[in-house]
Amino acid sequence: MRRLVLASILIVRAAVADGGRDGDLIDVQSAILDAVLDIRYATADNFTGKQLYPAAHCKLRRAVVARLAKAAKALRAQDRRLLLWDCYRPLSIQRELWKRVPDPKYVADPAVGSKHNRGAAVDVAVVDRAGKPVALPTRFDEFTIAAHRDHALVGDGGAEARALEKAMTDAGFVPLATEWWHFDAPDFASYALSDEPL
Asked: pTM above 0.85?
C-alpha cells in the first residue's frame, strides 16, 4: 500500500509539474489517479434533468490541480478519496444553467461568469478508500438551506463534510457558504472566463 501511495504522489508531481503553465487547463484524473469522477452534468442525473456536457471530464487550471492534489493526499490518510462532481464549465453551459435557476445564490449569472468558467472552482465530496459512498449532508446541487455550509457541517454526514472542508481549506481553497461541496481557488480572478470545449 505504501508503495502505491508513493507512486501516486510521484505521478501527481510529474503531471502537475510537467513544464506547463499554471493557467493551463489540465485533466485532474491524469494528476490525481485515485479521484472518482461522477460528473453530473455529463448525465441527466442533475437538477436540469438533461445532459449538458458531451463527456465526463474534469479539467482545472494546473495550479488549482496542485492544490487539489494536496487535499487528496490529506484525505488518503483518512482512508478517503475525492469524488468530483463538477470542475471547469464552459461559459455556454453556464448560460443554460442560468436559464433554469436564475438565482445568484446558487448559479452564477453568465454575464459575470462563474469561477467554474475560469477553471478555478471544484464541486467535490468524498468516498471511502474502495470508492464506495459515505454519508454526506445532501445530494449534489440541492438548492435548500440543508446544503448551506453552516447546516451541512453539523447534520447527518457532517463529519465527512468537515473532514473535506479541512483538507480543502488546508490546501488553500475557499469554501462557498451556500454549497458545502463547492470550493474556489483564492486566485480565481487571475484566470480568464473560458468557453473552451470539454
From this structure: yes
